[in-house]
Amino acid sequence: MLLLLLAAACGDIRPYAGHPGGDAPRLVLPPAYRIAVPPPGQALLSDAGAAAFADSLAAALRSADVPAAATESNPLDWPLTVTAERQGETVVPRYGLSDADGAALGAATGKPVPLRGWGLEDPALFKEVASRDAPAIAALLGRVEASRKASDPKALAGEGPLRIRLAGVKGAPGDGNTSLNDRMSNFLTQLGYLPQDTAEGATYAVQGVVNAVTVPGNKQRIELQWIVSRRDGYELGRVVQINEVPRGSLNGLWGDVAYVAAEQAAHGIRDVLRNATTTEAPPAGAADGSAPAAAPARS
């Protein structure tokens, strides 16, 4: 009975899609990457100074026409790791670039910075260093892109079925993380997409987040969000499923619950992609061109 009740409730799917507006033409062919610049933890800076330098570096990269954001990595981002080494009365920053799967792509070394200014975490100095070193990072990206295009031009040109990175599910009790991710992979395949665990060649990413909260009546409210994003870090939308179940009833196997939740959410994910990319053709091999209407949101 529990499984049937939860299965029925999983029909309450609300795809919150982005509004493409003037960005719609760019959504069809999103950038090949976005650089994520998290606050560096090994750069001889305080937490506040690390965040300030990450902001300055991301801004300088954007000025150099490199899509970048001062943030922790999203599933398809390329993280840029910043470290710094003291050499006498100077500090030498170093920049290491990895792909979204964690493979090292290359490194660049910045020019020495006066130790005193770096230690004082001077915003003007951070801006100067970031502007000075950004071209070296951009040149590194150029070499990486040239190498990738030479080795796999079809994948980078976006040819073939649409590839989606399944970045996993987190926060679910029991075996929910694994069961939901596996079922989602199956249903996205049935809809004509190519789900994969890695980021290489993927145009979009889907990540599941489960939040279980105890509510009155010895129950738990299970909120499942499927977050859809593209390569430049832009969040296209979310598919949200909410249900209340007896407390602890999902601490073991999810079974049919995962099956029904993933089946319904997969269609919501397709709706998010279609709403955001209005000029994009349906993926090859889709079973049909329709999607079930979303149930009205519960109060």
Structure report:
The protein is an alpha/beta fold and 299 residues long. The chain contains eight helices and twelve strands. The strands form two sheets. The protein has a six-stranded mixed beta sheet, with helices on one face. It is elongated.
Topology:
Elements: H1 2-9, E1 13-17, H2 24-28, E2 35-36, H3 47-63, E3 68-69, E4 78-87, E5 90-98, E6 104-109, E7 113-114, H4 115-120, H5 123-151, H6 153-156, E8 163-170, H7 176-190, E9 194-196, E10 204-215, E11 219-230, E12 235-246, H8 256-276
Parallel strand pairs: 2-3, 2-4, 8-9, 8-10
Antiparallel strand pairs: 1-12, 4-5, 5-6, 5-7, 10-11, 11-12
Helix pairs in contact: 1-8, 3-5, 7-8
Question: Notable features of this structure?
Answer:
alpha/beta; disordered C terminus; 6-stranded mixed sheet; 299 residues
| Percent in helix | 25-40%
Count of runs of 4 or more consecutive helical residues: 8
Our Rg estimate from Cα atoms comes to: 22 Å
What is the end-to-end distance?
A: 24 Å
Q: For the report, how would you describe the main beta sheet? A: 6 strands, mixed
Average pLDDT: 80
Short description:
This protein is an alpha/beta fold and 299 residues long.
